Amino acid sequence: MSRPAFPATAADYQALARARLPGFLCDYIDGGASDEQTLRANVEDWHGVSLRQRVLVDVGKVDTRATLAGQPCALPLALAPVGLAGLMAQRGEVQAARAAQALGVPFTLSTVGICPLDEVQAATSVPCWFQLYMLRDRGIVRALLEKAWASGCRTLVFTVDLPLPGMRHRDTRHGLNAGGLRPALVRARQALARPGWLWSVALGGRPLTFGNLSAQVPNVRDLDAFKHWVDSQFDPSVTWADIEWLRGLWPGTLMLKGVLGIEDARQALHVGAQALVVSNHGGRQLDGVASTARKLPEIVQAVGAEIEVLVDGGVRSGTDLFRALALGARGVLIGRPWVWALAGAGEAGLRALIASWQRELLLAMTLAGVTRVADIDSSHLDRVAQCATP
Ligand code: FNR
């Protein structure tokens, strides 16, 4: 991967991130589950969606603004929750939240972020969205929700596709799932090869703990022990009844993230969620499931009139964002691209990436002859592609 002096695309930022981060962190971000088929399909299947060019339409005023979960946005895009983002840049979640606010898009803080909610909220005037994993200890879940509400969060992103963490072989190869001295030495060697990261993040970005959970965990300083505790807290026995419990506790917008089929989308509606994210966790959970580009249209058709349907997975440009809207999504979330931009070029890099996607979306709208986000629909798809869409 060559390192561009003036990055233009998500892949350019990925190359910059690779040059700055230790190898095990690059693979933690980039990797997917098992053979990574779904990871690849997520990206490739957007490319299979052909767009329809229109000419001589009045596109003098094109507006990319939209509303996501009741929040006005400069474009229909939000930063997805990414665990451990504070290992990728100094106080990474704070920098990302500031960049998101500057560009007018929501930032979602992961349960397993490095920076705690208070720190992120203090750095911005627009409250972030908060992502929740159900933990075995429901007392902790209740406390997290109370804290999120008190801090001003009004959108809860509840992730439903992680009853257990997926098989991520890249992480295994770096010894991330094994304790002991040897994996620690392997990672220390990789870290020493990145002195800039060591100085700025490993030293300058402390404390490197799961900020939202640090009060609950016995051995806060040991990140390996911490990760072990978090993994043991994932609760595979969660059902729709628990969502009803959650619904009762959360007065704000409830968004379910990780729905990939019509039946589950209907259930989401039934339990009172106002929004859902068509997602396969960026290809990090069940390898072999269909890409989100493939599943999106049928889910929109089934429930799109009654619930806000967002999508994530493999969106790599403003043009992909346009494709998602044309397939019926109200907006998209992005994961890896924002982390690459932040890790590779800091807060300014992330601002530049979002601004570039906004320009690209505006350009796509202009060339497709549509001036408002709400008017983007399947009429902007090429007819041949429409037939090919399942
Ligand atoms: C994630 N994702 C994720 N999702 C979530 O609900 N909570 C989390 O803590 C994380 N952590 C996480 C870490 C990393 C390194 C990645 C790449 C992803 C999934 C994420 O929110 C989103 O669904 C995908 O990243 C979307 O796919 P793309 O945009 O990365 O292709």
Describe it.
With 390 residues, the protein is α/β, with parallel strands linked by helices. Helix content is 46%, strand content 10%. It is built from 16 helices and ten strands. It has helices at residues 10-20, 23-30, 37-47, 92-103, 117-123, 138-150, 169-173, 181-192, 195-203, 223-233, 240-249, 262-270, 292-303, 318-326, 336-368, 383-388; strands at residues 66-68, 71-73, 77-79, 108-109, 129-132, 155-159, 253-259, 275-278, 308-312, 331-334. The strands form two sheets. It has an eight-stranded parallel beta sheet. Helix 1 runs antiparallel to helix 15 (336-368), helix 4 (92-103) runs parallel beside helix 5 (117-123) and helix 12 crosses helix 13. Residues 28-29, 42, 80-83, 110, 112, 131, 159, 257, 279, 281-282, 284, 312-315, 334-336 line the site of ligand FNR.
